[in-house]
Amino acid sequence: MGTWNDFNDAQSNTNLIPKGTLAKVRLTIRPGGYDDPAQGWTGGYATRAATGSVYLNGEFTVTEGQYARRKIFTLIGLYSPKGPDWANMGRSLVRGMLNSARGISDKDMSAEAQAARRISGFADLDGIEFIARIDIGTDASGDDKNEIRSAVTPDHRDYAQVMGTAALQFGGQGAAGHAAQHTTPAAPAHQPSQPASAPGFTGRPSWAQ
């Protein structure tokens, strides 16, 4: 049997970015119009589901390399009525994003590094660029989909190569050098709320339902 007679060894056309791929991405938060000032959730960025879970509806666009312009949709957990796990995972991801974007080692606990891990609001995350480790999860239908669960910090050997000019800009300066340069960007004009579900994205982790 030839190549065009037996298709058992043909690659599946899943169109997924391979698990473990490192890519520079830009986060766009799809606003859900939900605010809770007591929690620091302002600007209409958060989304509240009918189940009571609250999250940031993240659209991550690969900016460079082989998968440039590919989009990955991932929810960043803020609250789940089922317990703290989802919010803790969301906080961990945001910490990694800030470390990655601002050139801070995760082990750096200096005052400057701690200041770099603080934000004035979700507007500071809208448009942030960082190095993500691409993962593979499943959607509500059980089909595979790409998602982002963690960010790559300067501690990783490939950080500088993937980050490119951004890493060169802040490389060798540490948190102090970056903190001196970093100013919190002004919040962009709020856009009208968009549907919480992005095209091609369905489902959320079981603990958020």
Could you give the topology of this structure?
Elements: E1 22-29, E2 34-36, E3 41-48, E4 54-62, E5 71-79, H1 85-101, H2 111-116, E6 129-138, E7 144-152, H3 159-163, H4 165-170, H5 174-181
Antiparallel strand pairs: 1-4, 1-6, 2-3, 3-4, 4-5, 6-7
How would you characterize the overall build of this protein?
- It is a single chain.
- 20% of the residues lie in helices and 27% in strands.
- It has helices at residues 85-101, 111-116, 159-163, 165-170, 174-181; strands spanning 22-29, 34-36, 41-48, 54-62, 71-79, 129-138, 144-152.
- A hairpin with a 5-residue loop joins strand 3 and strand 4 (54-62).
- The longest helix is centred in the middle third of the chain and has 17 residues, at 85-101.
- Mean pLDDT is 83; it is low at 165-209.
Provide key terms for this protein.
globular; alpha+beta; 209 residues; 5 helices; disordered C terminus
- Main sheet record: 7 strands, antiparallel
Q: Portion of residues in helices?
A: 10-25%
- Order of helical and strand elements: EEEEEHHEEHHH
Q: Number of helical runs? A: 5
- In total, how many beta strands? 7
Q: What average pLDDT do the residues reach?
A: 83
Structural domains: how many: 1
Strand fraction equals 25-35%
Q: Tell me the distance between the termini.
A: 48 Å
Structural class: alpha+beta
The general outline is: globular
CA radius of gyration is 19 Å
Low-confidence stretches: 165-209
Biased composition (Low complexity): 173-200
Region (Disordered): 173-209
